[in-house]
Amino acid sequence: MAHGTRLAIALVHIFTWSFLYILEMSNGHESDMYCLRSIKESIQDPHNHFKHSWDFSNREEGFFCNFVGVHCEMPDSAVERRISNIDLRSKELKGNFPREIKNCSFLTHLDLSGNELSGTIPSDIFDFLPSLKFLDLSSNNFTGEIPKSVVNCHSLNNLPKAATLGRSQSHSAFYHYRQPKPNDPNL
Predict the structure, then answer these.
(1) What is the 8-class DSSP label of residue 153?
(2) Could you tell me the fold of the domain covering 2-152?
């Protein structure tokens, strides 16, 4: 009887760990897919860069890793490839900063530069992207201040000194404003 009990316990452990593995894969896949779907829905793409490439009808694991501007890697703590890089620079995209980008929780590289994005950057966005190493939002039409939550991105490699630049000035800045503050110490 003891042998049967041990076998039953071993089978329960195997089933539990298998279920948790599948659940983790499903959650990562769904989270990344939701992130990309919300980007596609929230940004206007007048030149149809996403029309054929960003096709969500394919449900195979990691299918979105082949989307235009998307790169995936296998993070140490993950059991599947996750989105690590979104590079949508110079695609003439319009709209506001895609708030649901926070669902790409393994994102290390985000480049939305050279577009026509506007509005403000959500104040809590960096709370959800702690692994971000590279960020370029330059040459857009963002307004407002750089969110204070940027300090939560401990791995972000650098920020320029000039944090309040107009669109016509330097293109190397991480963040551009339409109207700089008159008494800003960073000018």
Answers:
(1) -
(2) 3.80.10
